[in-house]
Design a protein that fits this description.
heterotrimer, A alpha+beta (182), B mainly beta (90), C alpha+beta (987), A: 182 residues, alpha+beta, Gyrase A, domain 2, Alpha-Beta Plaits, 2 domains, globular, B: 90 residues, mainly beta, Folate-binding fold, two-stranded antiparallel sheet, 1 helix, 6 strands, 10% helix
Chain lengths: 182, 90, 987
């Protein structure tokens, strides 16, 4: 069976900018009147205490739900168990697998806001963007999803732009020591 | 310019794409030629407050309608176009 | 003028001397000097030549308002022209050069320009140099010389070697200016809990405090400043940025700052030179101080003529004497402070006051310092050429004229609050006759001017003003603190007297930098150009790099006087960003060149590169254009690839095409409304070619749409329109038909897509695919099937635009490269290979498909020969508007095929089609695509032609390329060049 090849394979790295093979990204979309119902069902299904409000993520043991749109939840995490097949009854909504479309680059919390606020015009300092925050915003002109995790900020980027964004982050990270302090 | 997306919060206007005059009602697909011609071409050009559609294309991608003062660019009354999701943006 | 450095004093670090050069001469200064203070300390008073008349010029001020000391700093690619010596921090190894003088600063041949003065007055380019004779070309002849004779510095033509950075910043309150008012505003606001950014252009905080000699709150000014700075730097919610200029305020509190980072030429290495901050501030306090105005008198531009407060700055802050004996000319109280400090420093000082009398503490202080004061006298004319040697004064009518010997003249004509940032928001300033100043106007913007920027002159009152500004911001943002009142503008003991000019002798300059004289203003006004916007453009007053900081108000006063109007009636010009010059490099950002835009790479990208693909940019995408064998050209390459496909089989990466997943119970109904043809009834497992129109009835995009499930469709688009179509579908769903239960999501990135084309396509797929049968009955043309390739789920559609048997294979993107490699091995074994986008398009052209050049927003379905696709059974977007008579006109430009009449002739895209006897206007049409067809053995093209096939089929026209000057005869034919019955497609 063929192996998945990730878009940043073989590229030069730095310690604080790492590629995260989160192999599952599934979008759940509900028709407006059925959203609340869908959110409740999914939280239960993935054993989460609650479903996320706008701009937030709720994290569980092996998967998290990200609120990326008024009607949409993204399930993000490792490989799903073989018997788990994301699905929704058509009168509630629809499901779209995006596991290959979005790839995650993680920036370590030690430099996350300093590095990313050279690209992104959302305030990423911890007081304004605490853990479990989610923001959809352009980075270098590309729409990405920023997600604050305990270890740093995850940047979910469209696959075709991943290499470009990787270069931008890694090179800027390399320049940080010689950068005059902000 | 900063625009407050109802879902994402205040963002730079460069995250949004202008989407046309919100005061225009597009008729049924099989309406008359006159109605369609008006909807496609006839616009007023007020000096003052204008209702506009924008899409938060660099963010959550919802369509929203806002009021913008063409003189001062001050922006008010931002809400999702699709009112059925007004509750879902909070 | 003989400037020199005092033995002691100044806010300098005399333990750290700094070496620099001026016009090649090595000089020395100290850490804490500006280039200007160091030049003066070394006795360099002549530093440049003026813009138009090449008059000798010196150092006029100590700040951004500098008109004359513009030098080029650095050499070669790093040369920065028009650098203000007065704001340039002196650093080790700095190289400064005079500009715009030849052969040397002292003996500049350009000075001969002054002989042409009568021909170079205001608006001269409309009035002079028009002859001899009636020829209209004379101006073009003279212009070359005039242009070279005028100007300031020259920019280097080499690429900028420096790096720049961008940062996005956020704060509750932005305070612009760290003088007494700004420091207090920042302290109060941050103390109340606001997040504050304090910005200061200078390399030291303090503003006016840096030249203050009077104690503040019982300590020296420098001690007060040091203590304040310590407190602010220790506060966790203040960020202090020095060497940073706020250059523009934009809508909704967005402010642009440029921070200068590099200190010495030697520090180049990897450090960025400048940093652009884009700040989003909830509130702004402008504490940018005020600018002193010059007086207008003869030769008021000579080296040695300075602003009075600047002379004081040089004495107090930099321990530099502008001369041994100075005359201060003034019409207001502030100059008495300058006179006092100069006298105390040991400079013999005479003060000439235009007013009949003045009294109070400032006057007393000056008298106590032995300053000689003359009342009721105005300056008439300065003496000296390369330096001041004296000043002629007299009464306002020119009587009682006498000459005072001196080597420095300090002028004070009043003060202009620096409220430019507020004015950039369209807030018109308000003239105060009492203060002879423009004060900030009322506004609802969350911007407040404090201190001298609001017309407050006293030191104590400036601090009060700053505190009030900081408190106001904190209260507006919800903090509970006491709000002190704002002190009123003003603060002098005696009223200012707006200067009168009755008898000026010699050139009196109003705008020193642009060489605009009093005579020019008079001329311009008498010719009717007396509104500020007209005067500015006619005389170029205020259009220099100093943006009229020291000239605008004086000019307005002149217009008002000449027209017998009030200044408030005359009005002002509009302030626009940038407040001070900003380098293009810092705006271009940290990644110019190739990295300015992101790059989009297909999942198959690396494999294509290793196959030697020649990549081409398509928007942000990199796509394989062709796969050159050896050194073959593009033309040879695509022809070989076309032959390969039609003879055997080829594979092409089409991952960049847009793919949108449309899902939901109403997805079919939705697509029925969006496409011109039917999709609701499309069976699962079938694909159909569709076209979408715009609301106005014109074609928007085309592509295939596959039904992959009962509630599941895949819409494909062209690469270029992918984003546009997605936004369009989202717009329709959210704004027009919100009740439809359908959702549109981009899946362009989710799938790698490989197109297989050629008669041996089945042989390629058969061995590697499982879960589907490929024979014609099981998998007919336009069918969609699912299966597995090498264990990976895949989706295959039997689609072809090439006219050959073909399939599109979709696999999840991370498996794309593997799938490609597998197909590549197989295809080579069949005598085929990879092909690129050039071939993809060329194959489609041969078949007569539109390829994008025809979908330019001007064509309808009928124009493209696709009218029969439109359903008559259901309305769709554009179905009504496409029936407008103009859009159904038979004579519209319609799709045709073209072949050259003469064998062997080539084609040019963009050529204009016209009748042989009528090469005029826009012709009858144009060529949109052209290729050499290996199948047919000659060039073929597609174009849009008025009247189309029904009018022109079989007839001959001319295809004319007027830009390259070539034309050739073409015959109009059907665009379906090969296999018009589609036998190969359906086999």
């Amino acid at each position: 069976m063929a192996k998945r090849i990730y878009p940043t394979e073989g590229l030069a790295t730095v310690s604080e900018v790492t590629y995260q093979p989160s192999t599952t990204v599934v979008q759940y979309h509900a028709w407006p009147q059925r959203y609340v119902e869908m959110a409740g069902t999914l939280a239960a299904q993935y054993k989460l205490s609650t479903s996320p409000t706008p701009g937030k993520a709720v994290c569980g043991a092996y998967a998290s739900l990200l609120r990326v749109h008024p009607q949409r939840l993204w399930l993000v995490g490792g490989d799903l168990a073989p018997d788990v097949k994301p699905d929704l009854p058509p009168d509630i909504g629809c499901v779209q697998d995006l596991s290959h479309a979005w790839h995650t680059i993680q920036v370590d919390s030690s430099i996350a806001s300093q590095l990313l606020n050279q690209f992104v015009s959302v305030n990423l300092v911890p007081q304004h963007f605490p853990v479990d925050s989610v923001a959809l915003t352009p980075l270098h002109g590309i729409g990405v999803v920023l997600w604050c995790r305990p270890g740093g900020i995850s940047v979910l980027t469209p696959r075709s732009f991943a290499q470009s964004i990787w270069h931008a982050l890694v090179e800027t990270r390399r320049r940080l020591p010689s950068q005059k302090p902000l | 310019m900063r625009i407050s997306c109802p879902f994402c919060g205040e963002r730079d206007h460069s995250e949004f794409t202008y989407g046309g005059d919100a005061s225009v009602t597009f008729p049924e697909l099989d309406a008359s030629l006159e109605e369609w011609n008006d909807a496609v071409y006839i616009r007023s050009n007020p000096k003052g407050v204008l209702r506009e559609k924008w899409q938060h294309s660099g963010g959550c991608r919802i369509w929203l309608v806002l009021e913008r003062d063409t003189l001062t660019h001050s922006i008010s009354q931002v809400e999702p176009v699709r009112l059925t999701i007004s509750e879902l943006v909070k | 003028m003989t400037a020199f450095r005092f033995e002691v004093g100044g806010a300098l670090d005399r333990d750290r001397p700094v070496e620099f050069s001026f016009n090649g001469r090595r000089l020395q200064g100290y850490t804490g000097d500006t280039l200007a203070s160091a030049l003066l300390a070394n006795g360099e008073c002549l530093v440049g030549r003026s813009f138009k008349y090449h008059r000798p010029r010196g150092i006029m001020s100590a700040g951004l308002e500098e008109t004359s000391a513009l030098l080029t700093v650095g050499r070669g690619a790093s040369a920065t022209p028009n650098t203000l010596a007065t704001t340039e921090e002196l650093c080790q190894g700095l190289e400064a050069y005079s500009q715009h003088c030849w052969p040397s600063l002292r003996f500049d041949i350009g000075v001969l320009n002054q002989l042409f003065t009568p021909f170079l007055g205001a608006g001269f380019y409309y009035k002079t140099f028009m002859g001899p004779g009636k020829t209209s070309r004379s101006w073009m002849f003279y212009e070359r010389f005039i242009r070279r004779a005028a100007g300031l510095g020259r920019a280097s033509r080499e690429p900028d070697p420096d790096r720049y950075e961008n940062v996005e910043g956020f704060c509750d309150l932005l305070v612009v200016g760290a003088g007494p008012a700004g420091l207090e505003a920042a302290r109060v606001a941050s103390g109340a809990g606001l997040n504050v950014i304090l910005v200061e252009r200078d390399f030291q905080l303090g503003g006016n405090l840096l030249q203050e000699t009077v104690p503040i709150e019982d300590v020296t000014a420098s001690a007060w400043l040091a203590s304040r700075e310590r407190d602010l730097r220790a506060s966790p919610n203040i960020r202090i940025l020095t060497r940073t200029t706020a250059f523009g305020i934009y809508d909704h509190g967005v402010v642009g700052l440029v921070e200068r980072l590099q200190r010495s030429p030697g520090e180049l290495d990897n450090t960025a030179r400048e940093r652009l901050w884009t700040i989003r501030a909830k509130r702004v306090v402008v504490a940018a101080g005020a600018i002193e105005r010059p007086l207008i008198f003869g030769n008021n531009d000579r080296p040695g003529v300075m602003l009075a407060s600047s002379m004081r700055s040089y004495a107090n802050r930099w321990a530099v004497a502008a001369g041994k004996s100075a005359v201060i000319v003034t019409n207001n109280d502030s100059a008495y402070i300058a006179a006092r400090d100069l006298a105390k420093a040991g400079i013999f000082t005479i003060l000439v006051d235009a007013r009949e009398k003045a009294s109070g503490s400032m006057v007393d202080a000056a008298l106590a310092a032995d300053v000689e004061v003359r009342f009721g006298r105005v300056p008439l004319r300065a003496k000296g050429r390369n330096g001041v040697t004296g000043l002629q004064i007299g009464d306002p009518n020119g009587g009682h004229a006498e000459i005072i010997r001196c080597d420095a003249i300090g002028m004070s004509g009043g003060w202009s609050p620096t409220q430019h940032l507020l004015s950039q928001r369209g807030v018109r300033p308000v003239w105060s006759d009492e203060l002879a100043a423009f004060l900030p106007g009322e506004t609802r913007e969350p911007i407040r001017c404090v201190g001298a920027a609001s017309g407050v002159w006293g030191n104590d009152e400036c601090r009060d003003s700053g505190r009030a500004g900081g408190a106001e911001a904190a209260i507006a943002l919800g903090k509970t603190i006491v709000k002190p009142g704002f002190p009123p503008a003003g603060g002098w003991d005696n009223p200012i007297r707006q200067h009168v000019l009755n008898s000026i002798k010699g050139k009196a300059f109003v705008d020193v930098q642009n060489d605009v004289t009093l005579g020019d203003i008079i001329l311009s006004t008498s010719e009717g150009y007396d509104a500020p916007e007209l005067l500015k453009r006619y005389t170029t007053l205020g259009m220099g790099t100093d943006q009229g900081r020291t000239s605008a108000v004086n000019a307005l006063a002149l217009i008002a006087k000449m027209r017998g109007r009030q200044i408030s009636e005359v009005g002002t010009t509009t302030f626009r960003p940038p407040f001070a010059p900003v380098s293009i490099g810092v705006l271009a950002g940290s990644d110019p060149g190739q990295r300015l835009y992101p790059t989009r790479r297909s999942p198959v990208h690396n494999a294509s590169i290793s196959q030697g693909a020649n990549m081409i940019e398509s928007g942000f995408w990199l796509r394989s254009q062709y796969f050159p064998q050896g050194a073959e050209s593009l033309e040879a390459g695509y022809q070989r690839e076309m032959r390969m496909v039609r003879r055997s089989v080829g594979i092409c990466d089409v991952s960049s095409f847009g793919k949108i997943s449309v899902q939901g119970p109403d997805a079919g109904e939705f697509l029925n409304r969006v496409y011109v043809n039917a999709f609701k009834s499309l069976p699962v497992g079938k694909a159909r070619y569709g076209v979408m129109l715009r609301d106005d009835g014109l074609a928007m995009d085309d592509g295939t749409c596959w039904r992959v499930g009962e509630f599941d469709y895949l819409v494909t688009t062209t690469t270029a329109c992918a984003g546009k179509v997605l936004s369009w579908l989202e717009e329709l769903l959210e704004t027009r038909w919100p009740d439809l239960r359908a959702s549109a999501t981009s899946v362009t990135e989710q799938w790698a897509a490989i197109s297989i084309a050629g008669p041996r396509s089945r042989e390629l797929l058969e061995p590697i695919i499982t879960g589907m049968k490929l024979d014609n009955d099981a998998f007919p043309f336009m069918g969609v099937r699912e299966g597995k390739i090498d264990g990976v789920d895949c989706r295959v559609a039997r689609i072809s635009f090439s006219g050959e048997l073909g399939y599109e294979v979709y696999v999840p993107a991370d498996f794309g490269e593997n799938t490609w490699n597998l197909l590549l091995t197989g295809v080579k074994g069949l005598g085929g290979g990879p092909y690129g986008t050039e071939t993809l398009d060329a194959l489609a052209i041969e078949k007569g498909h539109i390829v994008g050049g025809e979908l330019d927003g001007r064509s309808t379905l009928d124009d493209l020969g696709l009218g029969r696709m439109a359903s008559g059974k259901k309305p769709f977007v554009g179905s009504v508007m496409r029936r407008r008579p103009e859009l159904c006109n038979d004579n519209r430009a319609q799709l045709v095929g073209l072949v050259p009449v003469t064998d062997g002739e080539t084609f040019e895209v963009g050529s204009i089609l016209c009748q042989q006897q009528d090469l005029s206007g826009h012709g009858l049409g144009w060529v949109t695509s052209a290729i050499e067809s290996p199948s047919l053995g000659h060039w073929i093209g597609i174009g849009m032609l008025n009247g189309g096939l029904s009018k022109w089929e079989g007839r001959t026209l001319l295809a004319d390329n007027p830009i390259r000057g070539v034309r050739y005869l073409v015959k109009v034919v059907s665009p379906h060049f090969i296999d018009p019955e589609g036998k190969r497609l359906h086999g």
